[in-house]
Amino acid sequence: MTVIGVLTSSGASSSGTSEDDQAVVPVGTASRLTGSTAGTVSTIYVEARSEATLAAAYQEVQALLANRHDVTTADADFSIATQDSLVETANETNRTFTVLLGGVAGISLLVGGIGVMNIMLVSVTERIREIGLRKALGAAPRVIRRQFLVEASLLGLTGGIVGVLVGVAGAQVLPHFIDQTVAISALATLAALATSLALGVGFGVYPAGRAARLTPIDALRSE
User: Fold this and answer.
1) What is the reported pLDDT for 14?
2) Number of Cβ within a 10 Å radius of residue 205
3) 15, 1 in Cβ contact below 8 A?
4) pLDDT grade, residue 36 (50/70/90)?
5) What is the rounded average pLDDT of the residues 52-64?
6) How many CB atoms lie within 10 A of CB 180?
7) Distance (Å, whole) CA 195 – CA 168
């Protein structure tokens, strides 16, 4: 036999078998190799151009086989199985993982936001005298509020930067263990930083407002 071409690598199939461990030969050659003289074909694999054309490909193959076998689709002597169920299962699994990961991310953001708020409340408590002095010297409540909001936003942004660095490091190390490349999205990275910044601002509103509401006499008298 003469090798006239090599197929591109396809990896594992949905059943777990390797699609690369196979040879494609003409039907007549296969009949001689298997010792079959009938020249019949038990299975034909057809690939649609895309998922959107899967239904159209099914109808086209059904009509073609019915015409070749000289039968109608109602009393066809063949059966056609599609991967619609596998595609639907894969889509359902992806949706489940999306909801699951979204829930985990939401809980992580909530815990991180509560941590930022607690840290800022501790900072306000420890700096009551500083706040009182600034107010006694004429600092307006909005100035005090802006100061603590900036600190909270910087705290959240710092956490986001650390998380991005850890993610980038993981994307460089993980392929060595799973034998698969991990892509880093610039849009997702910017969205993560923006979310961290918004988280710091959102959970820093209460501590900043608490600091802005302190009266100078109460702040100076606290110590």
Assistant:
1) 61
2) 15
3) no
4) low
5) 86
6) 7
7) 17
pTM recorded for the entire structure: 0.58
Residue with tokens 């985990």: 104
The answer to whether 152 and 208 are in contact (CB under 8 A) is yes
- One-letter amino acid at 70 equals D
Rounded Cα gap, residues 45 and 24, in angstroms = 12
DSSP-derived secondary structure for 155-196: HHHHHHHHHHHHHHHHHHHTHHHHSS-----HHHHHHHHHHH
- CA distance linking residue 88 with residue 98, whole number of Å: 15
pLDDT tens digits, one per residue of 64-79: 888 888 888 778 888 8
Q: What is the pLDDT of residue 103?
A: 92
CA distance 200 to 118: 11
Supply the Cα-derived Rg of the chain in whole angstroms: 33
Q: Can you tell me the distance from the alpha carbon of 140 to that of 136, in angstroms, rounded to the nearest whole number?
A: 10
The pLDDT, as a whole number, for residue 194 is 92
**Torsion angle, alpha carbons of 23, 24, 29, 30, to 10:** 70
Calpha distance 62→213 (Å, rounded): 76
Tens-digit pLDDT profile for residues 104-129:
988 988 998 898 899 998 988 888 88
